[in-house]
Amino acid sequence: ARKSHSPVKRRRKAQRLCVAYEGSDSEKGVKAEPLKVPVWEPQDWQQQLVNIRAMRSKKDAPVDHLGVEHCYDSSAPPKVRRYQVLLSLMLSSQTKDQVTAGAMQRLRAQGLTVDGILQTDDATLGKLIYPVGFWRSKVKYIKQTSTILQQRYGGDIPASVAELVALPGVGPKMAHLAMAVAWGTVSGIAVDTHVHRIANRLRWTKKATKSPEETRAALEEWLPRELWHEINGLLVGFGQQTCLPVRPRCQACLNQALCPAAQGL
Which stretches make up the HhH-GPD domain (predicted)? Predict the structure, then answer.
């Protein structure tokens, strides 16, 4: 008898359903633009800045001809110039520009180099820098910093803010100014008592700040970076001539109608 050959039914493999989703921009090789978060900025700050520039156009404040940019020997080797910039900044703390410039002139007459300072005894160094503020402490800081510069940096100064503020007697404001003047690098806004005071009077900080370093952080959050280099010199001179610590000359200020602090005077 013939065997009946019935066809064998093959099981069909279950077909996987592929669902295609629209690829994101990043998958297509196109970089997605980050969401722009609105940045806070002070009211009328651009006009206030224009007015301050106009009031400072003569460049006749003490900082303009006695500031750190004018205290070093421009004919000295680069390493010596940078050291003199740092030293002038260390002397300038709690000291008027005229006094700092006088001390630097006396130091330069003695030969202002790292080796020269280390070979000068403390009593002589004190006489040369007197009457800068806290001159006794500064004698100690200058000697300690000069020793570090000789041993670790070959007589030069560090090229970073972190290394500069690690030196005895060097604060953030000095470090940022040293980076700008000595190294030609804008690392941040140099904020001293003048900048701190004026920024709060103009309400250039989102909330009132209690220290120059807090003001620096607040300003850097919104002020365009291309303006950072000029703010220190601009506001320091403005603070020396018009926006004085006591009895500011609001009547002579172009920002009188735009300044919140002037409204209460």
Answer: 91-241
The answer to whether the 45-62+189-252 and 72-174 domains have the same CATH topology is: no
CB atoms inside a 10 Å sphere around CB 224: 7
- Whole-model pTM: value is 0.84
CA dihedral for 197, 203, 209, 212, sign (positive or negative): negative
Superfamily of domain covering 72-174: Hypothetical protein; domain 2 (1.10.340.30)
* Contact (CB, 8 A) for 111 and 80: no
Is 198:239 a contact under the CB 8 Å cutoff?
Answer: yes
| Domain 45-62+189-252 -> CATH class | mainly alpha
179-210 pLDDT tens trace: 999 999 999 999 999 999 999 999 999 999 99
Active site residue 173: yes
Catalytic residue selected from 9, 127, 143, 173 = 173
